[in-house]
Amino acid sequence: MAAKAKATEGVVETIKTVFWALVIAGVFRTLFYQPFWIPSGSMKDTLLIGDFLFVNKMAYGYSAYSCPFSACPISGRLFGSEPERGDVVVFRHPANGSDFIKRLIGLPGDTVQMKDGVLWLNGEPVPQQDGGTFEEIKQPQGSQGNMPQCANDPVGQGGTCIKERRIETLPNGVSHNILNIRDGAADNTPIFTVPEGHYFFMGDNRDNSQDSRFALPNGVGFLPAEYLIGRADRIMFSSAGRSLFFFWTWRSDRFFKAVE
Question: Is 102 an active-site residue?
Answer without folding.
Answer: yes
